[in-house]
Amino acid sequence: ISSAYHWYLAHDLIEPALALANNMASFWEFKGRTREGRQWIEACLENVAEGRTMDARTRAGALTNLGRLTWIRGDFELATRWHDEGLRAWNAIGDSRGIIYAQINLQQEAHRTRNYTRSMELLADNLKRSTDLDDKVLLARTWIAMGNSSVEQRQFEEARRNYEESLKVAREAESNHRIAHALNNLGNLALLQGQRSLARHHLMQALTLFEESGARPYATGAVLLLAKLERAEGDVGAAQKWLARAWAQIPEETYHTQRMFLEHAQIASSKGDPRLAAMLLGFVHRQHETSGALNFDIEQDELDALVNSVKTALSKSAYTEAYAMCRSLELSD
Protein backbone atom coordinates (compact mmCIF):
# COMPACT_ATOMS: atom_id res chain seq x y z
CA ILE A 1 0.00 0.00 0.00
CA SER A 2 2.84 2.38 0.86
CA SER A 3 4.52 1.70 -2.49
CA ALA A 4 1.28 2.40 -4.35
CA TYR A 5 0.73 5.63 -2.43
CA HIS A 6 4.23 6.96 -3.14
CA TRP A 7 3.99 5.90 -6.79
CA TYR A 8 0.79 7.94 -7.12
CA LEU A 9 2.49 10.97 -5.55
CA ALA A 10 5.58 10.61 -7.74
CA HIS A 11 3.37 10.62 -10.84
CA ASP A 12 1.27 13.59 -9.65
CA LEU A 13 -1.81 11.37 -9.23
CA ILE A 14 -2.95 13.21 -6.12
CA GLU A 15 -6.58 12.14 -6.03
CA PRO A 16 -5.97 8.35 -6.03
CA ALA A 17 -3.18 8.89 -3.48
CA LEU A 18 -5.57 10.81 -1.24
CA ALA A 19 -8.32 8.21 -1.69
CA LEU A 20 -5.83 5.54 -0.61
CA ALA A 21 -4.82 7.61 2.42
CA ASN A 22 -8.49 8.06 3.38
CA ASN A 23 -8.99 4.30 3.31
CA MET A 24 -6.07 3.91 5.72
CA ALA A 25 -7.45 6.31 8.33
CA SER A 26 -8.95 3.66 10.59
CA PHE A 27 -5.74 1.62 10.42
CA TRP A 28 -3.66 4.57 11.61
CA GLU A 29 -6.07 5.32 14.43
CA PHE A 30 -6.39 1.70 15.58
CA LYS A 31 -2.64 1.05 15.45
CA GLY A 32 -1.65 4.36 17.03
CA ARG A 33 0.33 5.44 13.94
CA THR A 34 -1.22 8.87 13.80
CA ARG A 35 1.96 10.72 12.77
CA GLU A 36 2.26 8.65 9.60
CA GLY A 37 -1.40 9.18 8.77
CA ARG A 38 -1.13 12.94 9.07
CA GLN A 39 1.96 12.96 6.86
CA TRP A 40 0.23 11.01 4.09
CA ILE A 41 -2.87 13.18 3.99
CA GLU A 42 -1.00 16.48 4.40
CA ALA A 43 1.39 15.57 1.56
CA CYS A 44 -1.57 15.09 -0.76
CA LEU A 45 -3.36 18.29 0.25
CA GLU A 46 -0.13 20.31 -0.04
CA ASN A 47 0.42 19.00 -3.59
CA VAL A 48 -3.01 19.96 -4.88
CA ALA A 49 -2.24 22.61 -7.49
CA GLU A 50 -4.27 25.80 -7.34
CA GLY A 51 -7.31 25.50 -9.56
CA ARG A 52 -7.12 21.70 -9.76
CA THR A 53 -10.48 20.01 -9.34
CA MET A 54 -10.90 17.05 -7.03
CA ASP A 55 -13.74 14.72 -6.13
CA ALA A 56 -15.64 16.57 -3.40
CA ARG A 57 -16.15 13.49 -1.21
CA THR A 58 -12.48 12.54 -1.38
CA ARG A 59 -11.47 16.02 -0.26
CA ALA A 60 -14.12 16.22 2.47
CA GLY A 61 -13.10 12.81 3.79
CA ALA A 62 -9.45 13.85 3.83
CA LEU A 63 -10.21 16.98 5.84
CA THR A 64 -12.24 15.01 8.39
CA ASN A 65 -9.62 12.26 8.68
CA LEU A 66 -6.81 14.78 9.02
CA GLY A 67 -8.74 16.57 11.75
CA ARG A 68 -9.28 13.31 13.60
CA LEU A 69 -5.63 12.24 13.48
CA THR A 70 -4.51 15.74 14.47
CA TRP A 71 -6.91 15.82 17.42
CA ILE A 72 -5.70 12.44 18.68
CA ARG A 73 -2.14 13.80 18.69
CA GLY A 74 -3.23 16.67 20.92
CA ASP A 75 -3.07 19.58 18.44
CA PHE A 76 -6.63 20.60 19.23
CA GLU A 77 -6.71 24.08 17.70
CA LEU A 78 -5.45 22.90 14.31
CA ALA A 79 -7.70 19.83 14.44
CA THR A 80 -10.75 22.03 14.97
CA ARG A 81 -9.88 24.08 11.90
CA TRP A 82 -9.68 20.88 9.83
CA HIS A 83 -12.98 19.66 11.28
CA ASP A 84 -14.74 22.94 10.51
CA GLU A 85 -13.45 22.90 6.95
CA GLY A 86 -14.47 19.26 6.58
CA LEU A 87 -17.98 19.97 7.87
CA ARG A 88 -18.38 22.80 5.36
CA ALA A 89 -17.28 20.44 2.58
CA TRP A 90 -19.75 17.72 3.63
CA ASN A 91 -22.58 20.26 3.92
CA ALA A 92 -21.79 21.57 0.45
CA ILE A 93 -22.45 18.15 -1.07
CA GLY A 94 -25.32 17.29 1.28
CA ASP A 95 -23.74 14.05 2.54
CA SER A 96 -25.47 13.27 5.84
CA ARG A 97 -23.12 10.45 6.80
CA GLY A 98 -20.08 12.67 6.23
CA ILE A 99 -21.73 15.43 8.25
CA ILE A 100 -22.19 12.99 11.14
CA TYR A 101 -18.52 11.98 11.11
CA ALA A 102 -17.37 15.61 11.06
CA GLN A 103 -19.77 16.48 13.87
CA ILE A 104 -18.60 13.51 15.97
CA ASN A 105 -15.17 15.09 16.04
CA LEU A 106 -16.44 18.60 16.69
CA GLN A 107 -18.61 17.26 19.52
CA GLN A 108 -15.57 15.64 21.13
CA GLU A 109 -13.76 18.97 21.05
CA ALA A 110 -16.80 20.76 22.52
CA HIS A 111 -16.90 18.11 25.25
CA ARG A 112 -13.17 18.49 25.92
CA THR A 113 -13.55 22.24 26.40
CA ARG A 114 -16.65 21.75 28.59
CA ASN A 115 -18.97 23.44 26.09
CA TYR A 116 -21.76 21.02 26.94
CA THR A 117 -24.47 23.12 25.28
CA ARG A 118 -22.69 22.91 21.92
CA SER A 119 -21.87 19.25 22.54
CA MET A 120 -25.54 18.35 23.08
CA GLU A 121 -26.64 20.34 20.01
CA LEU A 122 -24.28 18.31 17.83
CA LEU A 123 -25.32 15.06 19.49
CA ALA A 124 -29.02 15.76 18.97
CA ASP A 125 -28.43 16.40 15.27
CA ASN A 126 -26.28 13.27 14.93
CA LEU A 127 -28.89 11.16 16.71
CA LYS A 128 -31.57 12.31 14.24
CA ARG A 129 -29.35 11.81 11.20
CA SER A 130 -28.20 8.35 12.35
CA THR A 131 -31.80 7.32 13.01
CA ASP A 132 -32.85 8.54 9.55
CA LEU A 133 -30.02 6.54 8.00
CA ASP A 134 -30.86 3.52 10.20
CA ASP A 135 -27.13 3.20 10.88
CA LYS A 136 -26.78 1.29 14.12
CA VAL A 137 -23.00 1.75 14.35
CA LEU A 138 -23.37 5.53 14.19
CA LEU A 139 -26.24 5.34 16.67
CA ALA A 140 -24.04 3.37 19.06
CA ARG A 141 -21.33 6.04 18.79
CA THR A 142 -23.83 8.80 19.44
CA TRP A 143 -25.29 7.13 22.54
CA ILE A 144 -21.74 6.66 23.89
CA ALA A 145 -21.01 10.36 23.45
CA MET A 146 -24.27 11.29 25.14
CA GLY A 147 -23.29 9.08 28.06
CA ASN A 148 -19.89 10.79 28.29
CA SER A 149 -21.56 14.18 28.46
CA SER A 150 -23.84 12.94 31.23
CA VAL A 151 -20.88 11.60 33.22
CA GLU A 152 -19.10 14.95 33.18
CA GLN A 153 -22.26 16.60 34.49
CA ARG A 154 -22.51 13.97 37.26
CA GLN A 155 -25.75 12.59 35.82
CA PHE A 156 -24.62 9.00 36.40
CA GLU A 157 -27.94 7.21 35.97
CA GLU A 158 -28.59 9.07 32.72
CA ALA A 159 -25.08 8.09 31.61
CA ARG A 160 -25.78 4.44 32.42
CA ARG A 161 -28.97 4.47 30.34
CA ASN A 162 -27.10 6.03 27.41
CA TYR A 163 -24.25 3.51 27.61
CA GLU A 164 -26.67 0.59 27.89
CA GLU A 165 -28.55 1.86 24.84
CA SER A 166 -25.25 2.04 22.97
CA LEU A 167 -24.45 -1.53 24.01
CA LYS A 168 -27.90 -2.72 22.88
CA VAL A 169 -27.61 -1.07 19.46
CA ALA A 170 -24.00 -2.24 19.03
CA ARG A 171 -25.06 -5.83 19.66
CA GLU A 172 -27.86 -5.48 17.11
CA ALA A 173 -25.25 -4.22 14.64
CA GLU A 174 -22.94 -7.14 15.61
CA SER A 175 -20.10 -4.62 15.96
CA ASN A 176 -17.58 -5.97 18.45
CA HIS A 177 -15.67 -2.70 18.35
CA ARG A 178 -18.71 -0.65 19.38
CA ILE A 179 -19.65 -3.31 21.96
CA ALA A 180 -16.17 -2.92 23.45
CA HIS A 181 -16.55 0.85 23.66
CA ALA A 182 -19.88 0.54 25.48
CA LEU A 183 -18.46 -2.00 27.93
CA ASN A 184 -15.37 0.13 28.51
CA ASN A 185 -17.46 3.18 29.35
CA LEU A 186 -19.80 1.17 31.56
CA GLY A 187 -16.68 -0.07 33.35
CA ASN A 188 -15.42 3.46 33.87
CA LEU A 189 -18.82 4.53 35.19
CA ALA A 190 -18.92 1.60 37.61
CA LEU A 191 -15.43 2.54 38.82
CA LEU A 192 -16.51 6.13 39.41
CA GLN A 193 -19.42 4.84 41.50
CA GLY A 194 -17.26 2.47 43.53
CA GLN A 195 -18.71 -0.68 41.97
CA ARG A 196 -15.34 -2.33 41.50
CA SER A 197 -16.41 -5.91 40.75
CA LEU A 198 -18.77 -4.69 38.06
CA ALA A 199 -16.09 -2.35 36.71
CA ARG A 200 -13.59 -5.22 36.44
CA HIS A 201 -16.16 -7.42 34.67
CA HIS A 202 -16.92 -4.76 32.03
CA LEU A 203 -13.32 -3.65 31.55
CA MET A 204 -11.91 -7.15 31.06
CA GLN A 205 -14.60 -7.88 28.45
CA ALA A 206 -13.83 -4.59 26.70
CA LEU A 207 -10.08 -5.23 26.76
CA THR A 208 -10.51 -8.67 25.21
CA LEU A 209 -12.62 -7.29 22.37
CA PHE A 210 -10.28 -4.35 21.73
CA GLU A 211 -7.26 -6.63 21.58
CA GLU A 212 -9.02 -9.10 19.29
CA SER A 213 -9.65 -6.26 16.83
CA GLY A 214 -6.11 -4.90 17.16
CA ALA A 215 -7.37 -1.51 18.41
CA ARG A 216 -4.27 -0.59 20.43
CA PRO A 217 -5.22 2.94 21.55
CA TYR A 218 -8.56 1.77 22.91
CA ALA A 219 -7.03 -1.30 24.53
CA THR A 220 -4.58 1.05 26.24
CA GLY A 221 -7.48 3.08 27.60
CA ALA A 222 -9.00 -0.03 29.17
CA VAL A 223 -5.62 -1.02 30.61
CA LEU A 224 -5.23 2.39 32.27
CA LEU A 225 -8.67 2.06 33.84
CA LEU A 226 -7.72 -1.38 35.17
CA ALA A 227 -4.59 0.16 36.71
CA LYS A 228 -6.78 2.76 38.42
CA LEU A 229 -9.08 -0.02 39.62
CA GLU A 230 -6.19 -1.96 41.17
CA ARG A 231 -4.93 1.18 42.89
CA ALA A 232 -8.42 1.82 44.29
CA GLU A 233 -8.38 -1.71 45.72
CA GLY A 234 -4.97 -1.13 47.29
CA ASP A 235 -3.01 -3.50 45.04
CA VAL A 236 -0.24 -1.17 43.88
CA GLY A 237 1.81 -4.02 42.43
CA ALA A 238 -1.03 -5.08 40.14
CA ALA A 239 -1.60 -1.45 39.16
CA GLN A 240 2.06 -1.08 38.19
CA LYS A 241 1.87 -4.23 36.06
CA TRP A 242 -1.07 -2.77 34.14
CA LEU A 243 0.86 0.48 33.66
CA ALA A 244 3.88 -1.44 32.35
CA ARG A 245 1.54 -3.14 29.87
CA ALA A 246 0.15 0.25 28.85
CA TRP A 247 3.66 1.60 28.27
CA ALA A 248 4.52 -1.41 26.12
CA GLN A 249 1.59 -0.75 23.79
CA ILE A 250 1.20 2.99 24.22
CA PRO A 251 0.28 4.76 20.99
CA GLU A 252 1.40 8.23 20.00
CA GLU A 253 -1.58 10.01 21.53
CA THR A 254 -0.96 12.71 24.10
CA TYR A 255 -4.31 11.68 25.56
CA HIS A 256 -3.03 8.36 26.90
CA THR A 257 0.54 9.32 27.82
CA GLN A 258 -0.71 12.06 30.13
CA ARG A 259 -3.08 9.70 31.89
CA MET A 260 -0.41 7.04 32.26
CA PHE A 261 2.02 9.39 33.99
CA LEU A 262 -0.75 10.82 36.14
CA GLU A 263 -1.57 7.31 37.35
CA HIS A 264 2.13 6.77 38.12
CA ALA A 265 1.99 9.97 40.21
CA GLN A 266 -1.06 8.65 42.07
CA ILE A 267 0.80 5.42 42.85
CA ALA A 268 3.93 7.27 43.99
CA SER A 269 1.83 9.33 46.38
CA SER A 270 0.02 6.26 47.74
CA LYS A 271 3.40 4.53 48.34
CA GLY A 272 4.63 7.46 50.41
CA ASP A 273 6.90 9.03 47.77
CA PRO A 274 5.48 12.55 47.38
CA ARG A 275 8.72 13.83 45.81
CA LEU A 276 8.40 11.44 42.87
CA ALA A 277 4.71 12.30 42.61
CA ALA A 278 5.60 16.03 42.43
CA MET A 279 8.17 15.33 39.70
CA LEU A 280 5.59 13.45 37.64
CA LEU A 281 3.00 16.18 38.20
CA GLY A 282 5.44 18.69 36.74
CA PHE A 283 5.74 16.58 33.61
CA VAL A 284 1.97 16.04 33.31
CA HIS A 285 1.20 19.74 33.72
CA ARG A 286 3.77 20.67 31.09
CA GLN A 287 2.21 18.16 28.70
CA HIS A 288 -1.18 19.77 29.31
CA GLU A 289 0.25 23.21 28.57
CA THR A 290 2.11 22.04 25.45
CA SER A 291 -0.89 20.32 23.88
CA GLY A 292 -3.56 22.71 25.09
CA ALA A 293 -5.28 19.75 26.68
CA LEU A 294 -7.90 20.11 29.36
CA ASN A 295 -8.84 17.42 31.80
CA PHE A 296 -12.49 16.49 31.88
CA ASP A 297 -14.14 17.81 35.03
CA ILE A 298 -14.06 14.55 36.99
CA GLU A 299 -10.42 13.96 36.05
CA GLN A 300 -9.57 17.51 37.09
CA ASP A 301 -11.09 16.86 40.52
CA GLU A 302 -8.80 13.83 40.93
CA LEU A 303 -5.77 15.83 39.79
CA ASP A 304 -6.53 18.72 42.15
CA ALA A 305 -6.91 16.31 45.08
CA LEU A 306 -3.55 14.70 44.25
CA VAL A 307 -1.78 18.07 43.99
CA ASN A 308 -3.17 19.15 47.36
CA SER A 309 -2.11 15.84 48.95
CA VAL A 310 1.45 16.10 47.61
CA LYS A 311 1.80 19.75 48.62
CA THR A 312 0.68 18.85 52.13
CA ALA A 313 3.30 16.10 52.36
CA LEU A 314 6.22 18.31 51.22
CA SER A 315 7.57 21.68 52.20
CA LYS A 316 6.90 24.46 49.72
CA SER A 317 10.53 24.53 48.57
CA ALA A 318 10.73 20.74 48.25
CA TYR A 319 7.56 20.63 46.17
CA THR A 320 8.71 23.48 43.92
CA GLU A 321 12.11 21.86 43.33
CA ALA A 322 10.69 18.41 42.54
CA TYR A 323 7.85 19.81 40.41
CA ALA A 324 10.30 21.85 38.30
CA MET A 325 12.67 18.91 37.76
CA CYS A 326 10.58 17.11 35.11
CA ARG A 327 8.97 20.13 33.44
CA SER A 328 11.87 20.43 31.01
CA LEU A 329 11.85 16.76 30.01
CA GLU A 330 10.46 15.32 26.79
CA LEU A 331 8.51 12.06 26.73
CA SER A 332 11.60 10.09 25.62
CA ASP A 333 13.53 11.46 28.63
Shape, principal axes of CA atoms = globular
Largest sheet: number of strands, sense, barrel closure:
none
Helix content: over 70%
Radius of gyration equals 21 Å
Number of strands: 0
Low-confidence stretches: none
User: Percent of residues in beta strands?
Assistant: under 5%
Q: How would you summarize the topology of this molecule?
A:
Elements: H1 2-10, H2 14-23, H3 25-31, H4 34-46, H5 56-72, H6 76-93, H7 96-112, H8 116-133, H9 136-152, H10 156-173, H11 176-192, H12 196-213, H13 216-232, H14 236-249, H15 254-270, H16 274-291, H17 297-313, H18 316-325
Q: What do you see in this structure?
A:
The structure is a single chain. This protein is mostly helical and 333 residues long. 82% of the residues lie in helices and 0% in strands. The chain is built from 18 helices and no strands. It starts with a helix and ends in an 8-residue tail after the last helix.
Entry summary:
The protein has 333 residues and is mainly α. It has helices at 2-10, 14-23, 25-31, 34-46, 56-72, 76-93, 96-112, 116-133, 136-152, 156-173, 176-192, 196-213, 216-232, 236-249, 254-270, 274-291, 297-313, 316-325. Helix 15 (254-270) runs parallel beside helix 17.
